[in-house]
Amino acid sequence: MKAGIVTYGAYVPRYRITPKEIGAVWGVDGEAMGKGLNIRAKSVPGPDEDVITMSVEAARSALKKAPGITPKDVGAIYVGSESHPYAVKPSATIVAEAIEAGPVMTAADYEFACKAGTAAIQTTMGLTLSDMYKYGMAVGADTSQGAPGDALEYSASAGAAAFVIGKDPLIASIDHTISYTTDTPDFWRREGQAYPSHGGRFTGEPAYFKHVLSCANLLFKRAGTSPEDYDYAVFHQPNGKFPVRAGRTLGFKDEQMETGLLVREIGNTYSAAIMVGLCAILDVAKPGNRIFAVGYGSGAGSDGFDITVTDGVDAIDRRSGRTLRRMVEDVKFLDYATYAKFRGKIRMREG
Amino acid sequence: MRGVSVIGIGETQFGELWDKSFRELGIEAGLRAIQEAKIAAENVDAIYVGNMSAGKFIDQEHVAALVADYSGLVDQHLPTVRVEGGGACSAIAIHQAAMSIASGVHDIVVVGGAEKMTDVGDVEANAILSSTTDQEWESVFGATFAGLYAMMARRHMFEHGTTREQLAAVAVKNHKNGSMNPNAQFQKEITIETVLQAPRVAEPLGVFDCAPLSDGAAAVVLCSADKARKFTDTPINLIGTGHATDFLAVHDRRDLTTMDATVIAGKRAFHAAGKTPIDVKVAEVHDNFTISEIMAVEDLRFVPKGKGGYATEDGETALNARISVNTSGGLKARGYPVGATGVAQAVEIVRQLRGEAGKRQVAGAEVGLTHTLGGTGATAVVHLFARGD
After folding, report:
1. Domain ranges (residues) in chain A
2. Does residue B283 share a domain with residue B220?
3. Under an 8 Å CB criterion, which residues of A touch B?
4. Is A59:A98 a contact under the CB 8 Å cutoff?
5. Is B346 in contact with B94 (CB distance < 8 Å)?
6. Complex ipTM tops 0.85
7. Does residue B234 lie in a domain region?
8. How far apart, in whole angstroms, are the C-alpha atoms of residue A186 and residue B119?
């Protein structure tokens, strides 16, 4: 028996800022920057939104689609993020209480740069297959940080996605999963630092591409498949260039990657990035469709998934709540000053 | 004094070589040069290494001993010398090694140059590069390396009518040459528009007016001219060297648009060789910025003062034109691992004079020149090479 996706939900904040608006503050041609990154806008969390509120939105959206899933049957919640609001105190317990899961359950927060959410999917797959619990919830969420003026500021955005993983009833089976992990310090943030550091172009070839391509090729081998076998392909999307280049290198066509490539409109949602891409695909996929998904987390590793959509996808209410496409299109643009206020970059009166 | 010849050359790929360490690069270049010279370990009398700042880039000092050790030459217990002098360090190393041979102390000396710059981030790397300027009177007041060269460019534009398009023409030419060099960091041709539209670094210099941060190494084997034919049929002779210094800080210099150190080093080298600029058909000059090449071709008297930009724009310094400048791609396209520069330039000139430069071969090259700068021009070294036959 296979494990797979039982239901899914995503959340992307409504606020957006354009590279042009950011560039104007730093004396940079933001429009050219955005073009180079293939990013038209990035999502911005509202002043009262954080990883926990967004995770709750995504988790509730997942359960709303599948009313048959009882929250009490969710035996584990893992929240993957690199922007957990607390350094010590789990996000996952708040998400659990908010969806009325628990207390007989396990929970933990995960961190592995942008692939903490997919690591949570793998964990819950293993534990549901071993019958430790019926369903596990894997969440990837981030309100990612980019230092003001840094290249990251043009892409670092916010979003969340939640997958309920189990064995039955599946809307999509995860037929194979494989990971590729090395110690590659391309991007990091030390305890107490407000913003991450990165290795510039080192984040490309020896980091993103090496891991994504290696993992993808291992997945092809394990699944005995090739690019033509898939209807959709989705990759971690730190910008709009890397995933397209990786996909083309592997032999995928742009049409296969189009649906899951949300980064162009919402920026890099880090732990949520490949998961919201996957949600966008599940919003429109038909039974029998095959999906090739390879995430990436700096530091570094890739998780690959070979997924087949089942008949069960028509049994859940995919139209309930807002589809990802609607969340991507329903936007309110901010100027930099409001963005700075929302992101807490303005130092307020003390005492 | 005895003459000095080059009997072996070697270099690594230049670029962002993330999977190669400083020592791996140095050894790769050194062993290639030694193998090419067909000499044995026992033949080597000394090693000179040019390196700008391994202490800051990779936290490693004492690199001269390191190079001898990792070259497998430790059994020889050779004297090894590390030379510092900003971007000119390995050009100075060649000069020092050549003097040790000319004086009769050594017969065969391996000279290497290496830099590993990509183990630190871009911001730190640029700060390290700026350490070759005057820390007390320039850097501390906010002057960056590019900013100081930008001032020279602005003054050159003001005094001589040099245009941004002429600056860009240097980068376009050097990228074209680099496209024919399989070891170059950038092997892609660019257009004037690419250079002009690139983000600005320090007006009027943009990203494409600046040489990149690179990893790489190069080495040459020098031998006393009287013994060179034992090892090679095509020894290339070092026929003249000029090494000169100037004020460390740009604002103390006599003229912003002339590098006096280059002028003097050039005169000394030509005088020692008994040659004139007209004799030189191929030259590798220090184009860490596009303005640097324009000033270099003027200060070396290849073109009249103020005409460097026009000459470049008119193609006079293109491959196989009046004088072929930076056939390797120069610092701009071949790459700029600072400490490797002087030796890498010598490697290219030796290749050209031997007739082994492939698609970028300069026809009938008999005399070649290298020009290497330290800092913003406080040090300049000029070497002249000629065929030994």
Report:
1. 4-171+322-342, 172-312
2. no
3. 28-29, 32, 197, 199-202, 205-206
4. yes
5. yes
6. no
7. no
8. 11
Mean pLDDT across the stretch A41-51?
A: 97
pLDDT at A337: 97
The question of whether A82 is a catalytic residue gets the answer yes
Residues of chain B contacting A202 with CB distance shorter than 8 Å: 16, 18, 118
User: Best residue in A202, A208, A209, A211 to probe B by mutation, most B CBs within 10 Å?
Assistant: A202
Question: pLDDT tens across A249-298, in order?
Answer: 999 999 999 999 999 999 999 999 999 999 999 999 999 999 999 999 99
Token representation of residue B340? 């490797």
**B-chain residues near A197 (CB < 8 A):** 121
The string over B148-166, giving b where at least 16 C-beta atoms fall within 10 Å of a residue's C-beta and e elsewhere, is bbbbbbbebbeebebebeb
What pTM does this model have? 0.87
Residues B367 and B267 in one domain: yes
User: Which residues is A7 bridged to in the sheet?
Assistant: A164
Contact across the interface for A200 and B121, Cβ inside 8 Å: yes
> Same structural domain for residues B311 and B269?
yes
Q: What's the CA gap between B122 and A197, in Å, rounded?
A: 12
Domain boundary among B198, B228, B258: B228
Pick the CATH number of A4-171+322-342 from 3.40.47.10, 3.30.420.40, 3.30.360.10, 3.40.50.720: 3.40.47.10
Closest CA to B180 of B353, B362, B364, B316: B362
Q: Does some domain include residue B126?
A: no
H helical segments located in chain B: 22-37, 54-57, 63-70, 89-102, 122-129, 145-160, 164-178, 192-197, 225-228, 260-273, 290-299, 308-313, 330-333, 341-354
Compute the distance between CA of residue A263 and CA of residue A82 in angstroms, rounded to an integer. Answer: 18
Q: How far apart are CA B87 and CA B52, in angstroms?
A: 7
What was the pLDDT predicted at A348?
85
Q: What is the Cα–Cα distance from A261 to A276, expressed in whole angstroms?
A: 9
- Sort out which chain B residues have CB atoms less than 8 A from A203's CB and list them: none
